[in-house]
TrEMBL record:
GO biological process per UniProt: regulation of gene expression
Keyword Hydrolase: no
GO cellular component, one term: nucleus
Alphabetical list of InterPro entries matching this protein: Ankyrin_rpt, Ankyrin_rpt-contain_sf
Gene3D superfamilies, per the entry: Ankyrin repeat-containing domain
Descriptive protein name: Uncharacterized protein
Organism this protein belongs to: Achaetomium macrosporum
Amino acid sequence: VDPAAKDSSGRTALHRAVSNGDLPLADMLLNTWRLDPNEANDDGNTPLHDLAAERVYFSFSHLHASWIFGAGFPAVRDKVKPVCHLLREAGADPERRNAAGKTPRAVLMTWKDIPWGATFEDLLYRALKEVLETM
């Protein structure tokens, strides 16, 4: 099995691991198999775009709403931030543009009133928090 193989939408195993918040798998794909953290799918989205996109946050919504509003948010946040750090350490570019011309940072900027000076991790945290608070 080729870990760099793409599915019908051009997503690699790394895209899926990131979307699922699977830190051990993402770590293995990046550090053992040396997958490119900037590999794009058919829409030009890298795993960092996927992490920034709201559809990824909703992949965590399998968690019961009462759990999310209680102890769940820190658990989800603590699952997402390490994946983001892992991607960034592996060289994921928060300024890489997808087919629509958006960077992962720009995807996060679609959330309200987030300053440009914030780190990518801060942006991710705020966006995730807003999504979970509105569920």
